[in-house]
Amino acid sequence: MFVLALAAAAISGALMAIQGTLNSGLSKVLGLLEASFVVHVIGSLTGAVLLLFGLGQGNWRQAFQAPWFTYLGGILGIGIVLLVALAIGEVGAASATTAIIVGQVGTAVVIDLFGWFGMEKAPFSYLKVVGVFLLAVGAWLLLYRPK
């Protein structure tokens, strides 16, 4: 179960990277407060009050101009919360967070490399590959438990 919990934490890290990217894309169309409100379907009272007072920076009339995939951040958030809770419950906060960061950074590098979700493409670099590899090695060292 230890390995499964770490895999769940790594997957949640990947989902966090994707969610942040999608939320960024949505906020460029609607405004940060409006995007946060849409993504968090249940909404927060604070966000609703701020929108009612006109403090949002966006334009609701632009809602249908946002790419459809930018609205998926809320769905990904459910997976993140569940997988993080599962992982932390099984392996503790430090181990789960370490696995989350590896998944997050690895996914972010791929998103940047291919320019997914409307992000500007970042050129390939072996140094990035080495960096992610070293991050994974560092994570393994943090997680290693001698018997």
Concise summary:
By secondary structure, this protein is an all-alpha fold. The chain contains six helices and no strands. The protein has one domain (2-143).
Beta-strand percent range: under 5%
Radius of gyration: 18 Å
Helix content: over 70%
Into how many domains do the coordinates divide?
1
Parts with pLDDT < 50 across at least 5 consecutive residues: none
Total helical segments = 6
Mean pLDDT: 78
- Overall strand count: 0
Overview of the structural elements:
With 147 residues, the protein is mostly helical. The chain has one domain. It contains 6 helices and no strands. Helix 1 packs across helix 5 (93-114) and helix 4 (73-91) packs antiparallel against helix 5 (93-114).
Topology:
Layout: H1 2-30, H2 32-39, H3 45-52, H4 73-91, H5 93-114, H6 126-143
List keywords for this structure.
6 helices; mainly alpha
